[in-house]
Design goal:
about 475 residues, mainly alpha, two-stranded antiparallel ribbon, 17 helices, 2 strands, about 0% strand
Length: about 475
């Protein structure tokens, strides 16, 4: 009687060989890499040019100053943005740049803030009276520049130029911007985080593009420790794209982190380290729900819903709307859009959790309609919620054969986003509650005329009277 041969793995109780186990794991590993790889699509094929090249260049050149103007007028208050200096721009960066020109690798709050330092160094070369305008314009310029960068870098995920314009517009019209981060040097790195997220996903096809991605990675990492939230995406990039030429942004980010490491390590060993007293998970989750989810469709819309349903009820309403939309996206759209939505939402949550954990005061301070402690930690996740919605709709219209459905989807998306853009276009937050700088700068110059030794002491905070060398003040 002949007995057919059986594979060893078919023998009852017999474990598969190492070779077989390896063969079983390889397809799984390849599949995982394939899923991750769709986060980093090939550069989009250039579409047939519908607009003359000269007109395209003119439109792009006009977009930046227009974005700057929009950002400047968004800040309401008794003093316009160009006449006021916000927060550390005055008490730390301007004062220290006047005292000691050009040592920009100086930590503040335990880490380097390279871009705010560079902005302050350029400001001191201008007449002192123009310092407020210079900080505001440069801060707005960073915002507009990041929006333009994102318009270009997002082409692999958002094929429609119209939707890429909507994405760039969501940077400039971010509903919570006026609370804290708009039009300043100190908070410009929060906009750089927007650009960094897209730089990590972008695969530039030119040396200029690679240099731009590397610059975004370096400047962001050298200006804020919050850039660590993109580390999982960079790791995924290394796994999915092993070729060195694909990692300009990775190299730039790593170089910025290397600059940060000595200062961060030194701070961690100090008594004032933020890591010494982290917030508990419960308050951090509540902060994400109340300050990110509730504000995702508009800052003032969230407050109106609170008046109707209470804080928790309003959060559940907005949360249910977002869950329904992104549930639809995950169930119906192609793999690239699905993976992007998951990556964007997780990155946004991690950024809020990281910031709120190390700054526990933001989880306990009561927010008002004109102030929110820690609103800076909500900027990136709210932007990424909008970006995920734009990518999902872009995927839908890309594969839709019905022009009416395409138009309806884009109209609905813009309509929902416009709720926050319109109602939150201009209002007064912390950024609008600052001193009137021109008279203050003029008073500094007059004080120098009465000071024989050329040193004046000025008040920049309730208990801060730094010494300013008159020789550094320009008329």
């Amino acid at each position: 009687m002949l007995i057919p041969e059986r594979h060893l793995a078919q023998v009852a109780g017999q474990a598969p060989s190492r070779r077989q186990a390896g063969l079983q794991r390889r397809p799984l590993a390849r599949s995982a890499v394939g899923v991750v790889r769709v986060l980093f699509p090939e550069p989009a094929e250039p579409a047939p040019r519908r607009v003359p090249l000269g007109l395209s260049v003119l439109l792009l050149a006009a977009a930046v100053p227009l974005g700057v103007l929009v950002m400047l007028v968004r800040v309401a208050g008794t003093v316009p943005a160009w006449d006021s200096i916000y927060g550390e721009d005055l008490g730390v960066f301007l004062v220290q740049a006047l005292q000691h020109p050009w040592p920009v690798l100086v930590p503040y709050a335990g880490y380097l803030q390279l871009v705010p330092r560079l902005i302050a160094q350029f400001v001191v070369y201008l007449p002192l009276r123009d310092a407020a305008a210079a900080f505001a314009v440069m801060g707005a310029l960073v915002t507009a520049g990041c929006a333009l960068f994102i318009f270009h870098a997002s082409a692999g995920h958002v094929r429609s130029a119209v939707l890429r314009f909507v994405l760039a517009l969501s940077v400039v019209l971010l509903p919570v911007a006026q609370l804290e981060i708009a039009d300043s040097g100190v908070n410009s790195p929060w906009y750089l985080l927007f650009a960094l997220f897209w730089a990590v996903l972008w695969r530039p096809g030119t040396r200029a593009g690679m240099a731009g991605a590397a610059a975004v990675g370096f400047l962001t990492a050298a200006s804020t420790t919050m850039s660590v939230v993109v580390a999982p995406l960079l790791l995924a990039r290394v796994i999915a794209l092993p070729r060195l030429r694909e990692h300009a942004v990775t190299v730039g980010w790593a170089a910025g982190c290397l600059l940060q490491v000595p200062y961060v390590v030194t701070n961690l060993g100090g008594a004032q380290s933020r890591a010494a007293h982290p917030a508990a998970p419960g308050p951090v989750l509540a902060f994400y729900g109340h300050e990110v989810v509730l504000s995702a469709l508009g800052w003032h819309l969230g407050w109106r819903l609170q008046a109707f349903a209470g804080r928790n009820g309003a959060t559940l309403i907005i949360g249910a709307i977002l869950a329904a939309f992104f549930g639809w996206a995950l169930l119906t759209q192609r793999g690239q859009a699905r993976v992007f939505v998951v990556a964007a939402l997780i990155t946004g949550f991690l950024s809020t959790a990281f910031g709120a954990t190390l700054q526990p005061g933001v989880t306990t301070t009561t927010a008002t309609v004109n102030s929110e402690s820690g609103s800076r930690y909500t900027a990136l996740p709210i932007f990424l919620i909008e970006a995920a919605a734009i990518v999902a709709v872009g995927s839908f219209i890309c594969h839709s054969q019905h022009k009416l459905r395409t138009a309806a989807a884009v109209t609905a998306l813009v309509g929902v986003l416009s709720v926050g853009w319109v109602t939150d276009f201009r209002y007064q937050g912390w950024r609008g509650n600052t001193i009137n700088w021109p008279p203050t700068g003029t008073a500094w110059l007059h004080a120098c005329q009465r000071t024989p030794d050329g040193i004046i002491r000025v008040q920049t905070a309730p208990r801060a009277w730094p010494a300013i060398p008159c020789a550094s003040l320009r008329r």
